[in-house]
Amino acid sequence: MKVIVAEDDPVTQLLISETLKRWDYHVLVAKNGLEVLALLAEHGDVQLFLLDWQMPELDGIELCKKLKTSRGTSCCYIIMLTSKKATENIVQALDSGADDFISKPFSPEELKVRLKVGCRIIETENSLLHQAHHDGLTNTLNHRAIVDVLSQLWSRSVRDKSSLAVLMLDIDYFKRINDSYGHQVGDYALKHFCKLVKQELRPYDSLGRYGGEEFAVCLPSTEADEAMIVAQRIRTCVESHPVEYDGLNFTMTVSIGVSVFSENQQSYKELLLDADRAVYDAKSKGRNAVVFAK
Ligand SMILES: Nc1nc2c(ncn2[C@@H]2O[C@H](COP(=O)(O)OP(=O)(O)OP(=O)(O)O)[C@@H](O)[C@H]2O)c(=O)[nH]1
């Protein structure tokens, strides 16, 4: 696990960082709060912090407040390390957002177990957050999460006048798959479908389960013609990769509606609605088709 150690005394900094490396932590060091913020610009995934209270420029308490307010939903666990010992100091540290407090001089064994507690809490929170945002079957974003992503991207497009496309994907005759082969095979087919779609997307595109066998894809910085190409690629890929399960082999197809951001839209909901209408058109045109929203 990555950990940022902030300590202005070079000897103590070296002692702590070498000890943590021996315990298999990936250690990043800073000598004040500002350096921690600079490190985070490059290592935004760090969640564990060991902060000295008294540091020049930006001290541990002020840094705690900044980290807790700026990191949104991403979990971070802060251990405050200080020679202060009074109850009022502990209260102040925890009140400013620290999760734990160790008084110097401390025993390495105590530091080791407190770091372990931090890792345990970070892992639990990460797993809870993942469950809150993902669909349990397909491991794609769930309905609320994909709508949140779209709403944020839409606001960014309004602000920057940048392009944005949405694809609405609806698997064709999915009920027949369940009816013919059973629900378990239907579940497998949904997972297979999502794997195929994901391999056609860029790392910064988002796929989410909008409902049952309907999925939404957000394509930031994507114009209409590029979105149509991606949609056609997905359609072809699904059609040409049959579901293979326990001796079964059958082809699945998908109907896709495509819509793009325009400055006339009042909300991201219009973008979704347009894509939804286009899927409906694709279905009425015979399915296994891509339709651009008018
Ligand atoms: N196995 C499985 N089936 C699901 C799941 N969620 C929804 N479904 C099924 O998906 C089917 C969707 O059926 P319909 O809405 O009639 O659509 P369709 O059969 O795909 O037909 P068209 O969309 O018109 O092409 C229903 O039978 C649902 O029970 C799921 O998580 N697992």
TrEMBL record:
Gene3D superfamilies: 3.30.70.270, 3.40.50.2300
Keywords: Phosphoprotein
Residue runs in coiled coils: none
CDD domains reported for this sequence: GGDEF, REC_OmpR
EC code(s) of this entry: 2.7.7.65
Transmembrane segments: none
SMART domains according to UniProt: GGDEF, REC
PANTHER family named among the record's database cross-references: DIGUANYLATE CYCLASE DGCM-RELATED (PTHR45138:SF9), REGULATORY COMPONENTS OF SENSORY TRANSDUCTION SYSTEM (PTHR45138)
Name of the protein in its database record: diguanylate cyclase
Organism: Aliiglaciecola litoralis
